[in-house]
């Protein structure tokens, strides 16, 4: 199960608070002036940790989680090799396209799959890079 960036940040914050003697009393007459800064510092570190965690999350979809919903070409991996294959929804199976006759992969061989992005999706994902290249050319 994947966590959201907020959940990862909260987990990190809770681990920090549980692993130290960090205690803050917000009662008016017993307020530590450094507590606010400490909370902001820990919160910032928690957010950064959560964002870094989010950045490392895989786009691959486990076949145990779900299979593609439509026939079509997909990238698949067995954990070592990535290959472009065809998926038949009717049989819920991936088929090798490099061999003829096409052979279905045995159950358990393919660990994860990934939709092949369209050209427009690739352009959109790399828009900032293209803009920097254009700026350097001007």
Helix content: 40-55%
Unreliable residue runs: none
Please compute the radius of gyration using only Cα atoms. Answer: 24 Å
- Annotation, overall tally of beta strands: 5
- Number of distinct helices: 4
Number of domains: 2
- Give the neighbour order of strands across the main sheet: 1-5-2-3-4
- What sequence of helices (H) and strands (E) makes up the elements? HHEEEEEHH
Distance between the termini: 46 Å
Calculate the mean pLDDT score and round it. 80
Protein name: DUF551 domain-containing protein
Write a structural description:
This protein is α+β, with helices and mostly antiparallel strands. The protein has two domains: about 5-55; about 70-135, no CATH class. About 40% of the residues lie in helices and about 15% in strands. The protein contains four helices and five strands, in the order ααβββββαα. The protein has helices at about 5-20, 35-55, 120-125, 125-135; strands spanning about 60, 70-75, 80-90, 95, 110-115. The protein has a five-stranded antiparallel beta sheet with strand order 1-5-2-3-4, with no helix packed on it. Strand 3 (about 80-90) and strand 4 form a beta hairpin. Helix 1 packs across helix 2. The longest helix is centred in the N-terminal third of the chain and has 23 residues, at about 35-55. The radius of gyration is 24 Å and the shape is flat.
